[in-house]
Amino acid sequence: MAERSWSLGGALRGLFTTPVVDDEMWDDLEAALIGADFGPDLTDEILDHLRSEVDRLRITDPADVKRLLRETIEERLAAHDPTLRLSERPAVVLVVGVNGVGKTTTIGKFAKFLTGYQRSVVVGAADTFRAAAVDQLATWAERAGAGVVRPQQQGQDPASVAYQTVERAIADGTDIAIIDTAGRLQTKAGLMDELAKVRRVVEKLAPIAEVLLVLDGTTGQNGVAQAQAFIEHAGVTGLVITKLDGSAKGGFVLRVQQQTGIPIKLIGQGEGIGDLTGFTPHVFAQSLVP
Amino acid sequence: MATFGTLSDRLTQTFSALRTKGKLSPADVDGTVREIRRALLDADVALPVVKDFTGRVRERALGDEVNKALNPAQQVVKIVNDELVTILGGEQRRLQFAKSGPTVIMLAGLQGAGKTTLAGKLAKWLKNDGHTPMLVAADLQRPNAVQQLQVVGEQAGASVYAPEPGNGVGDPVRVAKDAMKVARDKQHDVVIVDTAGRLGVDAELMKQAASIRKAVDPDEVLFVIDAMIGQDAVATAQAFQEGVDFTGVVLSKLDGDARGGAALSVASVTGRPIMFASTGEGLDDFEPFHPDRMASRILDLGDILTLIEQAQKAFDEDQARKTAEKFATDSFTLEDFLEQMQQLKNMGSIKGMLGMLPGARGMKEQLDNFDESELTRTEAIIRSMTPAERRMPKLLNGSRRLRIAKGSGTTVTEVNQLVMRFEQAAKMMKTVAKGGMPQIPGMGPLGMGGGPGARSARKAAKKKGKAGSRSGNPAKRAAEEAAKAQGGSAGGAATGSGFGLGGGGAAGNQAPSAEELEALQKFLGR
Ligand SMILES: Nc1nc2c(ncn2[C@@H]2O[C@H](COP(=O)(O)OP(=O)(O)OP(=O)(O)O)[C@@H](O)[C@H]2O)c(=O)[nH]1
Ligand SMILES: [Mg+2]
Q1: Ligand 2 ion: residues within 5 Å (CB)
Q2: Ligand 1: distance of its center to the CA of B215 in Å?
Q3: Where, in this chain's numbering, is GTP bound (chain A) (predicted)?
Q4: How far, in Å, CA of B295 to CA of B284, rounded?
Q5: Distances in Å between the alpha carbon of B397 and those of A284, B244, B405, B410?
Q6: How far is A248 from chain B (nearest CA, A)?
Q7: How far is the CA of A106 from the centre of ligand 1 (A)?
Q8: Cα atoms in the Cβ-side hemisphere of radius 13 Å centred on B119
Q9: pLDDT of residue A2 exceeding 70
Q10: Which residue ranges have their beta carbon within 6 Å of ligand 1?
């Protein structure tokens, strides 16, 4: 294989030291976007846009093309409002996503973030399916200084755990209730319906403030299908992108945002309890096009 | 944003434009290769791998083997598939067991790839095979990973060595080392070491993984990778190859709908065999990896290849060319029609053929309504005609039609319908031969024999409205169909047979067994 240790940064750095705007530059640019998981369609779309801008503005310096690209990406990322809406009391947050993307970890970090701002938090272990999932969440709750509602028995209906969590938050006057759910592939109709049921049951007690869909930053084009299915069944209001501390760039999220209009609200960058940040289009664009 | 449809749809279009050409020009090949490139990228195959791959395909496609083929464009797709299967299945092999002492299997991979669940699946699978596996809890990082392994071990009926509580407490290298002694003492013949997920860029943790490897001297190091991963698969696989030098790959979460291009990336960049597929959350959702199924899945090609192969077997190439000429020049007769039909019969069930066509996506209902006995009747009608009538259907006046109906045991209406359909079909094939879109995309000159059945089937489907949306996967459809046939509900002719095992491309013409169907369903996970 010719290109062994390929990286977007490297490709673009190399690319933008090329002094002229030529075919090779465009090829490198394409490779950079594809390599960052933008996917072939969006890559074509962005490149077409750039080409016409380069023509229109008579750009001759590749450095300007780079700036233009970063701006284009930033602009698109900024098209949606990343604000978390947590004003109801209790503010109920439901966390959903496919298996192993980082839901439980994100809840741990998020709870810590909130308790850091003197908000009281209770987490609900509605993943009653996966082995030791309840214990895992309880460990995070303890680290974050949050309360936890566990199922009374193994395999209990997740909707009832979610209900009890909100019930408890109301009774205790807790500010925020975050509900963990079991990972599920978006193709499993039965499991997707289960999520809809969790929603319905919780809404009998209180409106749901946010439904956060966690997407693994290493994901490829399947991320779009994931988002579409979870939006349909769980009414997603925001995205969380995790594992951006690795070598993956997460370019697919731009496609997700464009196609669904759902904003990115949080970014996970590690396994530590402090490794969670808000979403800043400028920073994200910068990391995509360094 | 526009959706571009599946590769089969796009290629079908490319093909129909190329169909009549005897030879492919370099420009034709480039067009096809471009579609394949796009399909691979859509499937998340890493760009360097795609470039390498399409370069090789292009070279072969411009070679002799293609230009001599019945349908050069389809031959290109066949090349693509062959190359894919070669890379994916390059070094198919089974687990390597130790000659003496316990066999050690170490698991490694990114966070959330599915290692712990796989540990349980492996344990159960090995236990069913008469082994006495022991699981080792060497993920001391992720909260409650130790408990998870304990639960999973219990479900699998395997013992678990978990001396440390985890959650950041304990030394995984030490645990791994001690485990070897424990396994020997307790006479476990297989040891499965679960390790913490780690990033390829995390030098410190990669070093730790290398130390674990050194401590247990494994017979197999399995790299577990999520089928949904994108372009990063290459960098990650390389990091793990350098870090722990894995011996095999397990593709996880294949029960989703990710096309799984990572499989191709990892196999071609590391040269390590993909050994297993993990296909669900249950401990039994685990199976040996099938390169041919994976190739079809990555390309999303349905069973177009099986179809091409069967067509190539059944059709004499020269004759096919002659037929194409006849279509183009309007000299196609009922006699030719009859001959075509007989050839189709040689190929097995028509329904089966239709079922394998990617162009037949969403045609489940049509397939249900396809009545093969109609073909037999059609044959009888044509056989009752004189050679002159077969060549010149215009001769068929009222009294001749009555005679034919009597001779074939049918009615005049049926004879009328046949003649009408023949004329329509001949017209349709003429369009096809000239490069237009066929009625049944992807069938080429084959479409002919399917004509009558497919037509009435289409009518039936119209009555019922559009077929189900997501039975697009031919293999899945095949499974449904065959299951139905087994249940005896599909009317009339011996249907299920030709459906074969679509997705596997494995079993040619016999009905899949219940187990095969189950495995297939699992594999497809829909
Ligand atoms: N490097 C890194 N790892 C992460 C991040 N977020 C989560 N992880 C790890 O990913 C793995 C899976 O995380 P979980 O939080 O258990 O994921 P989940 O979605 O709850 O998983 P299931 O409940 O099993 O579906 C764990 O090993 C986490 O430590 C992140 O931002 N960066
Ligand atoms: Mg979880």
Answers
A1: A 103-104
A2: 27
A3: 97-104, 180-184, 242-245
A4: 24
A5: 77, 81, 12, 16
A6: 5
A7: 8
A8: 35
A9: no
A10: A 97, 99-105, 127, 130, 133, 183, 242-243, 245, 268-271, 275; B 111-112, 142, 197, 199
Q: Which tokens sit at B139?
A: 């993920």
Q: Residue A242: which CATH number?
A: 3.40.50.300
- Based on the fold, state whether residues A70 and A123 are members of the same structural domain: no
Low-confidence ranges of chain B (pLDDT < 70): 1-24, 64-74, 91, 301-330, 340-374, 424-526
Residue B327 class from Cβ within 10 Å (0-12 exposed, 13-18 middle, 19+ buried)? buried
Domain count of chain B? 3
- Tell whether A83 is covered by a domain: no
pLDDT digits (tens, 9 = 90+) for B147-202: 999 999 999 999 999 999 999 999 999 999 999 999 999 999 999 999 999 999 99
User: Cβ–Cβ of A220/B230 closer than 8 Å?
Assistant: yes
Q: At which of A47, A77, A107 does a domain end?
A: A77
Give residues with Cβ within 8 angstroms of B339, minimum separation 6: none
**Residue A187 contacts B where some CB pair is shorter than 8 Å:** yes
Cross-chain residue pair A136–B111, CB shorter than 8 Å: no
Cβ neighbours of A10 in B, within 8 Å:
none
State whether A154 and A124 are in the same domain: yes
Asked whether the beta carbons of residue B47 and residue A34 sit closer than 8 angstroms, the reply is yes
Task: Check CB contact of A26 with chain B, cutoff 8 Å.
Answer: no
Same domain, A195 and A60: no
Cα–Cα distance, B198 to B236 (Å, whole number): 10
Residues 6+ apart with CB under 8 A from A274: A109, A112
CA distance B286 to B280: 7
Element (H, E) at B61: helix B47-61
* CA dist., res. A102 & res. A120, Å (int): 22
The pTM score is 0.73
Q: Which domain holds residue B77?
A: 7-87
Tokens of B85: 């299967």
Give residue-wise pLDDT tens across range B382-432: 888 988 888 888 888 889 999 999 988 888 988 888 888 777 666 655 554
The answer to whether B273 touches B248, Cβ cutoff 8 Å, is yes
In terms of Cα–Cα distance, which of A123, A157, A121, A116 is closest to A138?
A123
Contact A222 B44 (CB under 8 A): yes
Q: In angstroms, what is the span from residue A99 Cα to ligand 2's centroid?
A: 8
Residues A180 and A205 in one domain: yes
Q: Is residue A3 part of a domain?
A: no
- Ramachandran category for residue A98: left, alpha or beta (phi over 0 → left; psi -120 to 50 → alpha): beta
- Judge if B77 and B184 occupy the same domain: no
What pLDDT was estimated at residue B234? 95
The answer to whether the annotation marks A272 as part of a ligand binding site is: no
Would you state the pLDDT for residue B387?
Answer: 85
A121-142 residue pLDDT tens: 999 999 999 999 999 999 999 9
Q: Are residues B276 and B335 in the same domain?
A: no
Q: Compute the distance from residue A184 Cα to the ligand 2 centre, in Å.
A: 10
> Coil, helix or strand for A210?
strand
Q: Are residues B46 and B143 in the same domain?
A: no
- Was B209 annotated as part of a binding site? no
In a domain, B525, yes or no: no
Q: Which domain holds residue A70?
A: 8-77
In this prediction, residue B16 carries a pLDDT of 55
- Tell me whether B144 touches chain A (CB under 8 Å): yes
Give the one of A35, A102, A140 whose C-beta lies nearest to B47's C-beta.
Answer: A35
Same domain assignment for residues A103 and A48: no
Residues A159 and A221 reside in one and the same domain: yes
ipTM of the complex: 0.91
In the block, residue with structure tokens 């401590």: B215
**A129, A188: one domain:** yes
* CATH number for the domain harbouring residue A47: 1.20.120.140
